[in-house]
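Lay summary. Proteins are chains of building blocks that fold into shapes, and those shapes determine what they do. In this project we predict the shape from the chain. Here is one chain we studied, written as its sequence of building blocks.
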Amino acid sequence: MNSVDTNASRPELRRGIGRIGFFALAFGSMIGVGWVTAMGTWLNAAGPMGAVIGFAAGGLLMLAIGLCYAELCAMLPVAGGEVAYAYMAFGTGKSFLVGWFLAFGYLSVSAFEAISVGRVLSQLVPGLDVWPVYVIGGETVFGSHLLLAAVTTGAITWINYRGVSGAARLQTLLTVGFVTVTLVFIGAGLGGGASANTEPWFTGEGTPGILAGIAAVFVTAPFWFVGFDTIPQGAEEAQQSVSPRALAMMILLSIIGATLFYCALIWSVARTGPWQTIAAADMPTAAAFRTSMGSPLLADLVLVAALLGLLTSWNGFFLAGSRVLFALGRGHIAPPVLGSTHARFGTPAAAVVVTGVLTAAGACLGRGAMVAFIDVGSFCIALAFLGVTFSLARLRRDRPNMVRPYRLPLGRIVPICAGLGAALILGVMIVPGSGAALVWPLEWGLLLAVVVLGGVAWMMGSRGRQTLDENERAHRILGEFAER
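And here is the predicted shape, written in a compact code that computers can read:
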């Protein structure tokens, strides 16, 4: 790969993301397309009010975790975010563990979006479900959907390969378009719907049943809210005018904005018609406006917004996932080739290509794997979040004098609450019969594959790890902050 610079002592990324670009990166990554494809799952699990409470609780947990990120990101604005935090706090092994699971969490979202593109477009363009190839999880995988996934994955890979400025501009334009369109149909649902359609507010029998439904929505919060942490991944590529404190503020504002969006949307959809009927539809959010409100135009607007949200989420997580792999490679924790930069574009070229290949491979699993990607991705992301809370606590103890442009309030309490929340999610996902446990064989098999591949990547990186002493590794991962 002649165009890749592998000789620099510390491969550098080119700067090109501004404040608006960072907010668009985070918010656009969080909203995604799940609110169209998974709305029925949320309503059936918890009912309208239960789903709103589940998302509000999830938003509060993410805000607590986001506060931890805000302090760490402002303190260590380097590519790879969590990789750097865990390395400074715990060393190479823990850094790889956090980075690997986080990378899969990002890649699972990227694959989810690659699968979703065919599903959304088939609603806008009838007759797109052609060339059945095979069946996974009871769902037919169509050749037309695989072709769409391959083409769009290739386009996003190319944009990210060519430079971060172009990826950031695309993200901003798509996010502005998404917000503009969604305000129209959310307002229509809230203003034109009826409160009676939201009854019953909860599913389940009695308090235990209601709480179980809310918990089923709450534990998936890491998957639906993940995205604010794309800011730390791109922090090293911030324009000179973007201060570390501004990065912290963008993290918190994006979480608040996404929480309000999810809660308003769920209630808006539930008001359009009897929610039990809406939840049974293939694309509940679009069906709510097409059948219940009798507006094909609003339904098409929902699908247009879904396509925009899909692309913003996909682009954001693609960028973030490639930066995590780049950070692992640059520090010779994973195979060093992942840490190389393009001599002309200043992008993590090899990591971008690997991210594109893995995304395309994940898309081949089709609709039958979508829930598995959600659940296993949530588990991996929650594990990474737990690592971040541990990293913050350790760095506050061991490096109290480091410059912190943003210091979170209640510095001892917030990390504990955030860590307990992440641990709770992990606990209920591995305890059989909890109502939110991973399902055998697909979900446990996918998680096992992640662990095995992680072991392979660790072994493949062993030779590279031996080529650096810890001083050089710290310099490569932390840059100027290695000496502080």
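What the prediction tells us: The domain at 18-479 is CATH 1.20.1740.10 (Amino acid/polyamine transporter I).
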